[in-house]
Amino acid sequence: MTAPARQALAIIPARGGSKRIPRKNIKPFLGVPLIERTIAILRDAAVFDRILVSTDDDEIRAISMKAGAEVPFERPAELANDFTPTIPVIAHAIGEMARQGAAFDSVCCVYPAAVLSLPADYREAADTLRQSGADYVFSATSFPFPIQRAVRRAGDGSCEMFWPEHRNTRSQDLEPAFHDAGQFYFGARDAWTEARPIFSPRSRLLLLPRHRVQDIDTLEDWDRAERLFLAASHG
Prior knowledge:
- By secondary structure, the chain is an alpha/beta fold.
- It is 29% helix and 21% strand.
- It is built from six helices and ten strands.
- It has helices spanning 34-45, 58-66, 86-99, 119-132, 189-193, 219-231, and strands spanning 8-13, 28-29, 32-33, 50-54, 106-110, 136-142, 151-153, 159-161, 178-188, 203-207.
- The longest helix is centred in the middle third of the chain and has 14 residues, at 86-99.
- The protein is globular, with a radius of gyration of 19 Å.
- The N and C termini lie far apart (44 Å).
């Protein structure tokens, strides 16, 4: 007997109230709304049975639907403020879909600004999640400099090392460190609904090159992301 196919859902959480870059999620990124570019990448990945957007904003809803995503419910106001964590937003979306009769084995949270991700990243993450049995697979990249050599600056301008025991340790002898790339988190449905932590031994990293990782929180970030996008020949 053939096993039933696994179902994968992509959820893009997209509030309308961006503060640092107003209307960030639909601001034209090289001429195309930011969220529209991310939706196109998810469609090209061909691993998601459905792509939906969780939003409280009518304009984001319209642009997302035109780009090929679904917006089957409105995100409640209590989940759309500046302090709302990601996991409750995704759990809410999973619950809404369940009430509509749709169930999924895995759910990928994708931020609207994940324009430097590639379709192949999602395919690899889906394979890793399935084969490893992990709670989550999330995008990450390496720090460009050993974190063990980091320094802090005091109020009087003086400085000291966080880890002075590594003052004379050669860089090549220090353990590599990685950080969240802030693009996507591919997780088992139960991991989301049970609010299991993303950063835990139950998670796996999908390592991306640093030239495909850029937070977009300022206009300077935005300009750099557009340059990286063009350099990677996405467009």
